[in-house]
Write a structure and sequence with these properties.
CATH topology of the largest domain: Rossmann fold
Shape: elongated
Structural class: alpha+beta
CATH class of the largest domain: Alpha Beta
Number of domains: 3
CATH superfamily of the largest domain: HUPs
Length: 471
């Protein structure tokens, strides 16, 4: 078999590279390990024991014996798959796969390998595409497995490669026979309790009765779809850059109007990619979840939706935030107000737009200077206020004379920066004002003229509160 061409052109791996190979002991992985070794790659064979069936150690023994014959040292790993799946609420196949890949990529990192190689072949490709089709996958699922995955949940710099995607399982078995390579037959491959096995033994043979070249047709289609997907990915990457993604405190912010302006297919794929890039281990983000997210983008009223597992989306002030359900987007950590001014009676309690409220109370009589450690709570000298009290957003180039500057003025933009108020929340940030200007920037400072002193006879107590739950 001519493997070097595939490794160079498709897998992008140079000759002689260090490669960790997942070696189960079956014909496919034994053939792959032998092929790489005889083609002078620096092979690090690795076997992961799942411990899910009796005599599973025979697989490791067979793999170890073959490696010793080839002058290679087999690296062994294992874990309690059933406990892991129970704790992580995952199916056995998914949990076993995760643990196996964690092991392989940890080895690759330790040895400075250029890739992790697995023995997926052409028959696996056909079965995988059919499984995705039956489950309702889109283009990303129907294109099948690539020769090279550049990034994954397991490593951002070590690729996963599949050099055998052009070869049938029967060819790999014949290779083992011709080269006198002993291999193990996994008895679970014959059990039709597994979905993949039912496809292999029942459904695909029926389809081949209608079209004897069914497998070849699926593989040709996957090649075409991979080319289409690569082009679409370039468009999605450009769209994501144009949207100007914001990453703050573990949350992802997306320009909602930009999303709304995009054609539906581009919008859907952009959202899917953003989710995949930021939560690479998330495997249940299906079409139903995508449509819930897209509905939030297009809905002018609704402001939150649960997606899958621990991921939630919140739409506020033109930004679509993707975040964990135990986190809040940055915009929720600051009070926000709409476009219109809001008059403030004294006393009063008003609700703001994003789960905050403002409470104003009067404390009559002579008061001394009052201090608080809460930046969203202040006392103002009631007699210093000029005319009505109201809330509004900041004006372009606006200034105020803040506490401590002895009458000198400062730009509100500079005060926001110095107080580390996130840029994404400044536009809708509420300012408490009177007819003389800004008297309080919540969380930042008050106007020097409104400070409470020993001569004050009335204090106005203002307090912004954030509710524990929003949406």
């Amino acid at each position: 078999m001519e493997l070097n061409k595939i490794l160079g052109s498709e897998c992008k791996i140079p000759p002689g590279a260090v490669i960790v190979v997942g070696l189960s002991g079956g014909a496919d992985s034994m053939a792959l390990t032998h092929l790489l070794h005889t083609n002078r790659y620096q092979v690090i064979p690795a076997h992961f024991a799942h411990g899910l069936r009796e005599n599973s150690m025979a697989d490791a023994d067979a793999a170890s014996a073959a490696c010793a014959q080839w002058g290679l040292q087999l690296r062994l790993g294992g874990a309690d798959v059933q406990t892991y799946c129970r704790e992580k609420h995952k199916g056995i196949e998914e949990g076993a796969r995760e643990l196996r890949y964690f092991f392989l990529f940890a080895l690759a990192k330790h040895f400075g390998a250029q890739a992790v190689a697995v023995a997926h072949h052409a028959d696996d490709q056909v079965e995988t595409i059919l499984m995705h089709f039956i489950r309702g996958a889109g283009l990303s699922g129907l294109k099948g497995m690539p020769y090279r995955n550049a990034t994954s949940q397991f490593s951002s710099d070590i690729p996963l490669i599949r050099p055998l995607l052009s070869y049938r399982h029967a060819e790999l078995v014949n290779y083992c026979i011709e080269n006198q390579i002993k291999y193990i037959e996994d008895p679970s491959n014959q059990k039709d309790t597994f979905f993949r096995n039912r496809l292999r033994h029942q459904i695909i043979p029926l389809l081949e009765e209608e079209n004897p070249a069914f497998r070849q047709a699926v593989l040709r289609g996957s090649i075409s779809l991979q080319a289409d997907h690569a082009w679409l990915e370039s468009q999605v990457k450009e769209e994501a850059q144009n949207l100007g993604l914001m990453r703050m405190d573990g949350c992802i912010g997306i320009n909602r109007m930009g999303l709304m302006a995009a054609e539906r297919g581009l919008r859907w794929n952009t959202l899917r990619k953003i989710i995949a890039d930021n939560w690479p281990g998330l495997r249940d983000f299906d079409m139903e979840a995508l449509q819930r997210l897209d509905g939030l983008v297009l809905d002018p009223v609704r402001n939150t939706v649960d997606l899958v597992e621990h991921i939630k989306a919140t739409s506020l002030e033109g930004i679509l935030w993707l975040h964990r359900d135990d986190q809040l987007p940055p915009v929720l950590f600051s009070p926000q107000i709409g476009m219109e001014e809001r008059n403030l009676e004294i006393p009063c309690e008003i609700e703001l737009e994003n789960g905050w409220n403002l409470v104003i109370e009067v404390e009559p009589g002579e008061v001394s200077s009052i201090r608080t450690a809460d930046p969203f709570e202040v006392w103002l000298d009631g007699e210093s206020l000029l005319g009505r009290l109201f809330l509004r957003r900041k004006l372009p180039g606006e200034k105020m004379s803040p506490l401590g500057l002895q009458g000198h003025h400062a730009r509100l933009a500079d005060l926001f920066i110095n107080a580390h108020i996130a840029k994404t929340v400044r536009q809708a940030y509420p300012l408490v004002c009177d007819e003389g200007g800004v008297v309080w920037i919540p969380g930042v400072t008050i106007a020097d003229r409104c400070r409470v002193s020993e001569n004050s006879r009335q204090a106005i107590h203002l307090r912004f509160n954030r509710k524990k739950k929003t949406g």
